[in-house]
Amino acid sequence: SSTLAKGAINMSKKKTIVKKLDSIQSFGAMNILCTDKTGTLTEDNIVLEKYLAIDGNENEKVLETTFLNSYFQTGLEGNIDKAIIQKAKENGLEQNIKDYTKIDEIPFDFSRRRLSIIVSKDNKKEMITKGAVEEILNICTMVKQKEEIQQLDSEIKNKIIEMTKELNKEGLRIIAVCKKEVYQNNFTVDDEENMILIGFMGFLDPPKKSAKDEIERLNKEGIRVIVLTGVNEYVTKTICEKVGINTDRIILGNQIDKTSDYSLNRLLKKTNVYAKLSPIQKARIIRVLRENGNIVGYMGDGINDAPSMNNADVGISVDTAVDITKETADIILLKKNLKVLTDGVLEGRKTFGNLLKYVKMAVSFNFGEVLSILIASIFLPFFPITPIQLLVQSLLYDIGQLSLPYDNVDKEYLETPKKWDLKALKNFMLWMGPTSSIFDLFIFALLWFQFEIRDAAVFQSIWFSYGVVSNLVGLHIIRTAKVPFLQSNSSKAVYATSIIFSIIAIIIPIIDKYQILP
Fold it and tell me: Residue of 62, 98, 288, 336 with fewest CB within 10 Å of its CB?
């Protein structure tokens, strides 16, 4: 607990807030980071760059119509809506709002990927719908070109698709806008049909300058970055290429729906970019990754990221995220930046390393000590240590080990993710416990045969002091895979506590005031 608490404090100094202490281990052990591109790879500063009619020319009427949709919608206001409203205000279109009255709304959802608003002006009602290009094209039968309404045939549709692809390749995210006149009073999703396509909105969210370097740093630290986004493959490809993520193959959401978990796992081993995903598809990818032995972190800030965070080993969000996402997250970053995340991961590895030192000591030395006492008790005419001595001895080196949260961790240990491995821990206990017991029995034999100590009180006093000192020296052996004291040194706090409590253990038996022997 003290190690995790200290780790949480250290991580907070690096702008990483830990909501759940036990998530620190998963954060440090993470070998795959799944993330949306928005805000993580990009600046998260979406700007409306283009508002185009069907012919590809800018048209303020398209902006005005889309503005009505964004202004009157009552759902969660996203960056796209904010960008539309900002541009409309800059163009002086806000004053036109007073002429309209909102009648109804069909909210956005991730299966339809569109949102509809019904407004009235001069007793004339219109349904205005904006959303992903493909989804809008599916509900349109007509287009408006140069103030004329035409049939949406395959030729026009193909031209529209090609135009949006070219815009996507420039890094622009495109949404389409359509409308129609309506006459009824009640509206449902089924009314989103036979609409007139009027134009497109192009948004730019440039990649972060630091993203490429930080992704390289994550890869160097043993963390693979997988992009899971709802945006189409063209925009995703443009952004990912600029930040150094391999885009030779991009898997789409509709392909995932047709793929079994076994096949999806094979795809996940060699594909880093997944586009046009729904929240359920993202969550499924996280689940499959975890089921195949990976420690998976998911970073997101939108309402649609909550299912993926629940499925991940560690959910990561930012302090500017929506409330439900922050509530679900285990870790919250105070800056939406991969550098902050990487620094936090390394601190998590350090915390787990220090935590594991104590666990190794507890399972191995306790096992070894009990084994030593049982064996010695068979051959000695008295117990090698009294119960009260054993309790005080345990108290002393447990207090001495409270300095472990302040200990150094070898650089080599931090280079790769480390998972909790119960089998390795068991093997360590079965090797280190008997090994320490052999040293104990050697001391028993030395005291009995070489020094011929037959007095129980003296024997127990020496064993009491030896037990504390040997455990604290053993701490320095267990804490590193290198040669202790020569190749790897502990922190000053660990050295200080080891020396102080070793001295205390030596002088306790010989000071009458602290005498614990009968």
Answer: 98
